[in-house]
Amino acid sequence: MIINTSTKLITILLSILLVISVVPTIVHSQSNYKPPHDKPGPAIDILRFRAFHVDIAPQEILANQMDMYYFGLKVAAAKDIRDSPGIKVHEAPTSTISLLLNPAPGPEGQLNPFSIKEVRQAVQLIINRDFVVQEIYQGMAVPMLTQVSSYDHDYLTLYDMILESSINYDPDYAKFIVNEAMTNAGAELIEGKWNYEGKPIRIDFIIRVEDERRDVGDLIRSEVENLGFIVQPTYQQFGPAIYTVYSSDPNLVGTGGSWHMYTEGWGKGAADRYDSGTLNQMCSPWLGTMPGWQELGFWQYENEELDLLGQRIFSGNFQNEEERNSIYVDASKLCLDESVRIWIANIVTNLPADDSIEGISLDIIAGPKSLWTQRDAYIPGKNDLTIGNVWVWTERTTWNPVGGFGDVYGNDIWRNMYDPPITRHPFTGLPIPYRANYDVTTSGPNGNIELPSDSFMWNSETSSWSNVPVGSTATSKVVFDYSKYFASKWHHGEQINMADVIYSIYQTFDLTYNEDKSSMEFAIATVSKPYLDSFKGFRIVDDNTLEVYVDFWHFAPDYIADYASITSITMPWEILYSMDTLVFDQRKAAYSDTAAQRFNVPWISLVMDGDARLVRNVIREHNSANNIPDNVFNVQGLQLVSDSDATSRYDSVLSWFDEYGMLVISNGPFMLYRYEPPAQYAELHAFRDETYPFKPGQFFFGEADLVDILDVDS
Predict the structure, then answer these.
(1) What pLDDT is stored for residue 505 in this prediction?
(2) Which H or E element spans position 622?
(3) Residues β-bridged to residue 346
(4) What's the distance, Cα to Cα, between the start and end of the chain in Å?
(5) 3 state SS for 141-162
(6) Helix (H) or strand (E) holding 423
(7) C-alpha–C-alpha distance, residues 306 and 290, integer Å
(8) Which of 148, 152, 404 is nearest to 280 (CA)?
(9) How many CB atoms lie within 10 A of CB 659?
(10) What is the mean pLDDT of residues 447-455?
(11) Fewer CB within a 10 Å sphere, N or C end of the chain?
């Protein structure tokens, strides 16, 4: 127990813990892992996903209906089964909750209280984080004030700022602030309720119901009512809530069917030593995840300074680690001051599993819900596993690699089906090679590298690859070796090659810089442009190797490689090409939800029969007409795809659709065999092609050796 600790001592302890956490750890359990076989692909043959309500999940594991549950148990249920024979409960700080406030002014003649910054700041003071942590989550959570918690590496970066914050539970002071701000805005307090222009102000509050957020929402509702507002709660599950909040114009606030407040929940994917994505996602409007969502025609929350600071972190615009940390603090402080997204708690999620499962690798943030576990996990004597979740499919589950995969339930399945070029180490949080190797050369932060004369960029005006201008420079060069991809095949049997990489790069650039395409998929193009602007050129070195030149620097070189990895190589070019034709030429579908609404077309999802048939029909047309995007595949005199190559690809896709009725084709250890939304069921089969480069155990990490501080002398 820590007794009479000073601020300095706490800081020292945090520093020690952080240093321990970022040094690669020797994992004693790793040598104990025995793969069940020596075949390519995963440890098991069949991986099933089924939906189970959270309240019955423990009983279903005991009844052998599933082997692991991916949705956090409610705290009381987790405590009840913790000592049950046959079950092991894995704890991981994989979930966070926040309160999103709508800052839009609203229609004329109405007053949205949360358009006033002082009112938003007052809401910080009515969030009783200690009560949420200790009573609602029974100690299985830690309070949060910023986008990172005490479980995250960058918490130490923000520690002094958080310590100096004056934010505590203080409802009386919150009421004082609200009274002053609302009065100055022209509102009147009549019989204890705020009115504006003779009408009572009503707060529309969307509260999620699947977990403890219902209790958290009710607590906040009561506090907001005590400030003098009428609160209308709407209790919703994932799909309807997400649609109402993230697919609507915030400026419809107060018109019915809209929202003022929403209890958000977030799943953490992996540890990250130096955060850039979370800061920008949760604070900076430019990335499209703040109210307005960067969608054309919507009111937009804007903050130029937050965008500037966030983009400096995102683009590596700093001289050293000290300056990076200073910028990170400034951005986080401004985000906290704006109080559009109010953080509540980081939940220690309880994920139960059959205790006989071998091969679980525990990410220090995501726990067993990482890239690694299902590639190595198995139960001795069995060749299958069943993973439970609260959903397998929802109305917001959309399988397309351009503007989909935005929900955690689809991603929990999808991550087992593709191999990323680069991923995060589950303990250190640093980028590491997975299926692509890389070599980084940099002259940063202040120098430049001259690009070779045969480097090229996509030119959307001429619809072709063009040589970069003579004398072009970049801060860094990353050489990617894709041989572990190119020596293997896609799930439909076609060889992966440089054409798949080049088409993916073209698709990203043309969607952003082609005016016709960007006007259709406005939100995707708008948030992609600042990132793509930093790419200065590409160069094909040989059949397996691509040079990428970027204006990006980081004091940790692996982050340069991670930034420069512009393509994830998740689907073959013929699928991407046919989707592009469907979306941009035929205009029968859309990549994003907002574009789908705007043009009244389907939000394309390759697991849904109707959408997959639309893409299948385009592939038939391309096949019969011998269509090939020659302008894309003619690179510096190289013709990457021949007529016979294209025909073979199209035939393989059509055969795949005839067999499976879907068009999700990738390159990872599992392939999608069945997907049944009405039954809330998905089934993956092992990809055993002899060319697949990985076998069970090659990326087994086990569990980090963490340090427990048992006692500190005062």
Answers:
(1) 98
(2) helix 609-625
(3) 96, 142
(4) 10
(5) EEECCCCCCCCCCCHHHHHHHH
(6) strand 422-424
(7) 12
(8) 148
(9) 10
(10) 97
(11) N
> Contact 307/284 with Cβ under 8 angstroms?
yes
Residue 452, burial from CB neighbour count under 10 angstroms (0-12, 13-18, 19+): middle
Residues 6 or more apart whose CB falls under 8 angstroms from that of 595 comprise 403, 520, 521, 522, 523, 603
pLDDT tens track for 124-139: 999 999 999 999 999 9
Residue 145 pLDDT > 90, yes or no?
A: yes
- Distance between CA 501 and CA 540 in Å, rounded? 11
Could you tell me if 183 and 191 are in contact, meaning their C-beta atoms sit under 8 angstroms apart? no
Which two three-digit tokens encode residue 319?
């001289």
State the Cα–Cα distance between residues 626 and 541, nearest whole angstrom. Answer: 29
Asked if the model's pLDDT at residue 191 lies above 50, the reply is yes
The pair phi, psi for residue 203, each rounded to 5°, is -100, 120
Partners of 98 in the beta sheet?
264, 343
CA dist., res. 54 & res. 72, Å (int):
8
Which of 81-85, 521-525, 547-551, 623-627 shows the lowest per-residue confidence on average (mean pLDDT)?
81-85
Considering the chain, what percentage of its residues have pLDDT values greater than 70?
94
SS3 at position 389:
strand
Burial class from Cβ neighbours inside 10 Å (0-12, 13-18, 19+) for residue 62 reads middle
Say what angle helices 609-625 and 643-660 make with each other, to 10 degrees. 150
Question: What's the token pair of residue 226?
Answer: 């005590």
Dihedral sign (CA 311, 315, 246, 237) = negative
Residue 624 backbone dihedrals phi, psi, to 5 degrees: -70, -30
Q: Which residues contact 65 (CB under 8 A, 6 or more apart)?
A: 50, 52, 386, 388
- The per-residue DSSP string of 667-686 comes to -SSEEEEEEETTTTEEEEEE
pLDDT value at position 13? Answer: 32
> Cα–Cα distance between 393 and 377 in angstroms, integer?
24
- Structure confidence by residue, pLDDT tens digits, 613-649: 999 999 999 999 999 999 999 998 999 999 999 999 9
* Cα–Cα dist 476/473, whole Å: 9
8 Å CB contact between 394 and 243:
no
Domains, the chain, in order of start with CATH, read 39-91+360-417+669-702 (no CATH), 94-271+338-347 (3.10.105.10), 418-667 (3.90.76.10)
Which DSSP symbol is given to 28? G
| CA-wise closest residue to 669 among 648, 695, 705, 702 | 695
Structure tokens given for 110: 């109405």
Looking at residue 135, the DSSP 8-state letter turns out to be I
Residue among 590, 471, 415 at smallest CA distance from 520 = 590
